[in-house]
């Protein structure tokens, strides 16, 4: 198959590609061998360093930390979806006195690093007499403000990527603005942006790890605690491997759901097969969110 | 305002370190990202596989976890230890490179195959096809999302604060020792981030406007 970058390979290109493939395998194998050798050399695979994870009490703690991470994720995910909806509706308002403050709000909270938001909640508010801020509250608020703002932009981009005929047809049927929004535009926009929305939820899950820095007792916190146990030979690397695996598996499951939804929506008969032009608008609507998924951006204010 | 003026030394050194982290991480992320991106679009299936595994693996790892490994785990491996700042730069670059690679790959995907086929049909070899036809078009599609990645990188440098790198995120901890109210310090830090991000977003918009072409 020919692609933008290369033509169908001829006999010479096939030979060259095979050689390159072998070289790649060798380089990767060498790298992995070096890493594993270095781990083994410094005793990271010795039974003593892994023993701590064989205790039922420790395993129970790991489970509790996983639940703490998932709690923070669940709360932040639901709240940011709600906030995202509210902000998106405000952002699409026809009244400037609603639209402009909401726009500033969105741009402001997309520009402040999530960690700084969490620190403002956790270190900044208690001296002012606010007493309810636990690490969990700080983590959830920080994540909600940031991801809610990003999701608002996602919803808005989804609505704006729809052909204007959809809205006009709704009005022609005699629907009010609320009806057009809730019955026609949002259902289609959410369906179209579903993969982006779920990827943003992966960001929420990943960013719960920031809670480690504001002393939230989640997976990384526990990893550092067990990694520092001198009695068991300070197993920081085994701890990183154990807790890192839990994180990565959780994220991969969520990312897998995003992929599955994307494949499914592409086949769904409920979405009218868009013409070439419509597909382009949708891709263009999704494009600016690539950067967001690494933890954010302030894209162009449109 | 007093909090800012009386402690300008810490604010300046904190944000200088943030910019150092940002600058070097951006360069290394670009280098690694170009290599990985090239692997992901290469005609060699094994290279594509390696690129895909790297991108999917690192993208689903929290940056905090990568930093954690480099700050706490790496020093235990008996390898030369370049210090926390360099380790933070490595973690940031490894993480950001996956996003750079994805931006590059989707940039190439925006160029219609017909463009390349037409170039090959008039007899252009690989080099000129790339430099005259494909790159100029892909480049324009790459710039705006690439700037978004750099903005995110700038904000992600704060994560290094949790791992003994004295940058903007640690200003609060240092000033608490001097008895300054944490909320004022943090609001100033947030304010400077808004300014820095605003500058990058402005740069993004003006570059986008400059290189926008109708297709």
TrEMBL record, chain A:
One of its GO terms (cellular component) is ATP-binding cassette (ABC) transporter complex. It is a multi-pass membrane protein. Keywords: Cell membrane, Membrane, Transmembrane, Transmembrane helix, Transport. The keyword RNA-binding does not apply. It comes from the Bacteria. Its main location: membrane. The keyword Zinc does not apply. It is found in: Cell membrane. The chain crosses the membrane at residues 20-40, 65-90, 102-122, 128-146, 192-216, 236-261. GO terms for biological process: amino acid transport. Residues 66-258 form the ABC transmembrane type-1 domain. One of its GO terms (molecular function) is transmembrane transporter activity. Pfam families: BPD_transp_1. PROSITE patterns: ABC_TM1. Belongs to the binding-protein-dependent transport system permease family. This is Amino acid ABC transporter permease.
UniProtKB/TrEMBL annotation, chain B:
Gene3D superfamilies: MetI-like. Keywords: Amino-acid transport, Cell membrane, Membrane, Transmembrane, Transmembrane helix, Transport. The keyword Ribosomal protein does not apply. Its main location: membrane. The keyword tRNA-binding does not apply. PROSITE patterns: ABC_TM1 (PS50928). The chain crosses the membrane at residues 20-41, 53-72, 84-101, 182-203. Residues 15-201 form the ABC transmembrane type-1 domain. Signal peptide: none annotated. It is found in: Cell membrane. One of its GO terms (molecular function) is transmembrane transporter activity. Belongs to the binding-protein-dependent transport system permease family. HisMQ subfamily. This is Amino acid ABC transporter permease. The lineage of its organism: Bacteria, Bacillati, Actinomycetota, Actinomycetes, Micrococcales.
């Amino acid at each position: 198959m020919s692609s933008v970058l290369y033509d169908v390979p001829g006999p010479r290109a096939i030979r060259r590609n095979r050689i390159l493939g072998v070289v790649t395998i060798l380089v990767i194998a060498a790298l992995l061998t070096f890493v594993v050798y270095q781990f083994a050399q410094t005793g990271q695979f010795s039974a003593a360093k892994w023993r701590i994870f064989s205790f039922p009490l420790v395993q129970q703690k790991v489970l509790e930390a996983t639940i703490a991470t998932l709690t923070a994720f669940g709360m932040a995910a639901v709240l940011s979806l709600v906030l995202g909806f509210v902000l998106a509706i405000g952002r699409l308002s026809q009244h400037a006195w609603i639209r402009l403050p909401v726009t500033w709000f969105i741009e402001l909270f997309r520009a402040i690093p999530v960690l700084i938001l969490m620190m403002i909640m956790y270190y900044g508010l208690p001296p002012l007499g606010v007493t309810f801020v636990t690490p969990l509250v700080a983590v959830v608020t920080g994540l909600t403000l940031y991801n809610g703002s990003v999701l608002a932009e996602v919803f808005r981009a989804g609505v704006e990527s729809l052909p204007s005929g959809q809205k006009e047809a709704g009005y022609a049927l005699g629907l009010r603005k609320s009806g057009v929004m809730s019955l026609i535009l949002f259902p289609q926009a959410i369906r179209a942006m579903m993969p982006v929305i779920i990827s943003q939820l992966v960001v929420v899950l990943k960013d719960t790890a920031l809670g480690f820095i504001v002393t939230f007792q989640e997976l990384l916190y526990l990893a550092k605690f067990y990694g520092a146990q001198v009695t068991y030979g300070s197993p920081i690397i085994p701890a990183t491997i154990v807790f890192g695996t839990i994180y990565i598996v959780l994220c991969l499951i969520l990312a897998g759901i995003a992929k599955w939804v994307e494949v499914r929506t592409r086949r769904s008969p409920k979405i009218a097969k868009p013409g070439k032009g419509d597909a382009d608008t949708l891709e263009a609507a999704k494009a600016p969110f690539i950067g967001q998924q690494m933890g954010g951006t302030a894209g162009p204010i449109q | 305002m007093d909090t800012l003026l009386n402690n300008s030394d810490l604010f300046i050194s904190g944000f200088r370190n943030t910019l150092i982290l940002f600058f070097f991480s951006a360069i290394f992320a670009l280098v690694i990202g170009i290599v990985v991106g090239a692997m992901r679009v290469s005609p060699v299936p094994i290279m594509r596989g390696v690129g895909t595994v790297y991108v999917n693996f690192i993208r689903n790892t929290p940056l905090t976890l990568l930093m954690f490994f480099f700050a706490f785990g790496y020093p235990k491996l008996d390898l030369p230890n370049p210090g926390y700042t360099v380790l933070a730069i490595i973690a940031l670059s490894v993480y950001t490179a996956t996003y750079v690679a994805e931006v590059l790959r989707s940039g190439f995907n925006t160029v219609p195959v017909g463009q390349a086929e037409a170039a090959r049909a008039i007899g252009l070899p690989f080099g000129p096809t790339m430099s005259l036809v494909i790159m100029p078009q892909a480049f324009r599609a790459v710039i705006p999302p690439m700037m978004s990645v750099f903005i995110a990188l700038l904000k992600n440098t704060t994560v290094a604060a949790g791992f003994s790198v004295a940058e903007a995120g640690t200003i609060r901890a240092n000033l608490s020792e001097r008895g300054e109210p944490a909320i004022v310090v943090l609001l100033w830090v947030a304010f400077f981030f808004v300014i820095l991000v605003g500058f990058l977003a402005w740069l993004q918009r003006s570059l986008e406007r400059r290189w926008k072409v109708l297709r």
